[in-house]
Amino acid sequence: MNALARMAWGILCGGTLVAQGQNAELANPSFEEGAQAPTGWSLSQGKGEWAKTGGVDNGACAMVEGDGKGDNAWLSSPVAFVPGRAYRLSFSARADAAGGGTAVSGPSFANVDIGVPGKTWSSFEHIFATPSSPDGVKAPVRLGQWQMHGQLFFDNVRLAAVEPVYATSEGVVLGTGEKLTGNAYAFEALLGGESRNHSRPLLESTAHFNSDRWCFGSGSTVTYRHALNAHRLLSGSVEVSCGYYVAGSLTVEASNDGKNWQRIGALTRTGSATFALPSALFPADAVSVRLQGAGSSTDLQVNGYSYRGTVDGTPVSFEGRTHYIEETARDSRVKVRVVGLGEALPGKENVATLQVQNLTPAALTLQARVRFSQAGLPVRTQAVTATLPAGGKDTTVRVPYPIPGTGTWKMTV
Question: Which residues, at least 6 apart from 6, have a Cβ–Cβ distance to it below 8 Å?
């Protein structure tokens, strides 16, 4: 099991926890408040109940009931999501005499099916990226069922904006799904993994996402941008897989400037296809690949995307990794950015690297701490004291830390 399940961060400065960030809090996340119905939540349709007992720690919870045919869900008040931002959704769920179909979770533009939970409370969480809409993205969070029979219960819902922190080595930055082997670069979108539709190469999207696949209608797009800041791209090809097809086509285009696009292929059926990128695009600092639904009645789903190519420069070999951190507090005197967390694995090279700016006219002395906590165990803390000069200049602060062991730990920086 990964030793790190969730990360938050801040810096102790004169006794004040500081960080920059934004949480999208849900009203009444444990369903404890309300009169006739839980405050901030409503049932979309069908059968459901606001239970005053039976939840986690025997508190309140929300229940939906399915007949094996339709769907329904508890809906939160609409959330004003930031376009193109990553979020973490977590909740607890259990089922009673249930089977078939699946429990559903998340906003409609980024649904995640979790199957049928067991009879005892279990925790679920995933990352998702919001669409790139200039008009903003406003939608409720859904917790419900699709074609399931029996009762399904939800509790302890939490929604938070998160910042991705990527692995770095010899000037190269790579996220989960990316790998550099000498001068060979590869990326595979791990659509069914923890981060779902989010990845470092994802530039923008308007297509909706469902569990492990992009859902394309007419005009909907997904664009990936491949760039390695210390290396130029010399060649490349992409493989695209369509797992569901009804009508229309998926066009595949490439660009090295984000303005002039060349069509390199299309998919008009289920299956996989590989498309070589034109040699005229290379060498390039970055190459973007755009998938777009074409045709007035397009209805298809993409469940696989990968890029492979070569790069110039000194050979480097390492595999990317993405950690998602929740920013928990602010202080107007200091600006902080987490730029690295090392390998974040037991027994490995683990260092939290922070870029800190003192925004005041006088020098500040701070203490940066890395804390690990787990229910029932003492808190483990590593600390480094640093003095920040006045004037807003970047100061790098590094905090080495050991991971206490395997299991689920909360890491706070």
Answer: 88, 125, 326, 410, 411
Q: Which tens digits make up the pLDDT trace of 9-32?
A: 443 333 323 333 344 579 999 999
Distance CA 74, CA 81 (A): 18
Give the model's pLDDT for residue 343: 74
Q: How high is the pLDDT of residue 24?
A: 58
β-pairing verdict for 351-358 and 208-210 = unpaired
pLDDT value at residue 122: 96
Average pLDDT over residues 106-119: 97
In residues, how long is the chain?
Answer: 413
* Residue that is written with structure tokens 């987490």 in the block: 338
| pLDDT for the residue numbered 392 | 81
Q: Do residues 189 and 304 make contact, with C-beta atoms less than 8 angstroms apart?
A: yes
List beta partners, residue 196: none
Give percent of the chain above pLDDT 70. Answer: 94
**Amino acid 373: pLDDT:** 85
Contact 189, 55 (CB under 8 A): no
First to last CA, the chain: 21
- Segment 339-343 shows an average pLDDT of 82
- pLDDT tens, 381-401? 888 998 899 888 889 998 999
């789903």: which residue's tokens? 301
User: Residue 266: exposed, middle, or buried by beta-carbon count in 10 A (0-12, 13-18, 19+)?
Assistant: middle
Buried b (16+ CB within 10 A) or exposed e, 351-381: ebbbebbbeeeeebebebbbbbeeeeeeebe
3-state secondary structure 112-180: EEEECCCCCCEEEEEEEECCCCCCCEEECCEEEEECCEEEEEEEEEEEEEEEEEEEEECCEEECCCEEE
